[in-house]
Specification:
about 170 residues, alpha/beta, Arc Repressor Mutant, subunit A, 2 domains, disordered C terminus
């Protein structure tokens, strides 16, 4: 069984799913591909999704509350991501970006020893189904521009400002 829950945040409602091993999905409820992503999770684990909580979802709620109030800089809730080996390696590099810092897609590709693979890395970032915990919001364009956040650049801006300590507590 896959457990699921809604979590309210300053930037909108999040939908979270977890297996017994860890969090497998954390996306905003208004993401265009949410239904397809939830269905893909269900297929990948050959399991039904139930509106019920397990220990990982309870831990996630606590950690997200601490993150949004500024007292948490790293997450310890276990993850159970669904993806190819390449995607998982890309997501692991995302988790090495320090809190409050950013990295370009090119820098991420270089870290993966794939200097010509910038587009593949960007595509894998876009397939991330565990927002915030796998911090794809910390990746920016080579020119410093905010690019490529499936749930809105305004959310990416908010998360980056929150992590840099420059957030005024407003969404704009």
């Amino acid at each position: 069984m896959i457990y699921s829950s809604e979590i309210e945040s300053p930037v909108g409602t999040l939908i979270a799913c977890a297996t017994q091993a860890g969090i497998c999905l954390l996306e905003f409820s208004d993401k265009n591909s949410l239904l397809q992503d939830v269905a893909a999770i269900s297929r990948a684990f050959h399991a039904a999704i139930s509106l019920a909580e397990n220990q990982h979802l309870q831990q996630l709620k606590t950690e997200l509350q601490e993150y949004f109030n500024g007292s948490r800089k790293a997450f310890s809730v276990p993850l159970d991501p669904v993806g190819t080996d390449f995607q998982k390696s890309v997501w692991q590099t995302l988790q090495t970006i320090p809190f409050g810092k950013t990295r370009t897609y090119k820098e991420q590709a270089l870290q993966l020893n794939s200097p010509q693979g910038i587009r593949a890395v960007a595509s894998a970032n876009g397939k991330n189904k565990i927002y915030i915990l796998i911090p794809c919001h910390r990746v920016i364009g080579s020119d410093g521009a905010l690019t490529g956040y499936g749930s809105g650049l305004w959310r990416k801006k908010y998360l980056l400002e929150l992590e840099s300590g420059s957030s005024s507590g407003t969404l704009f």
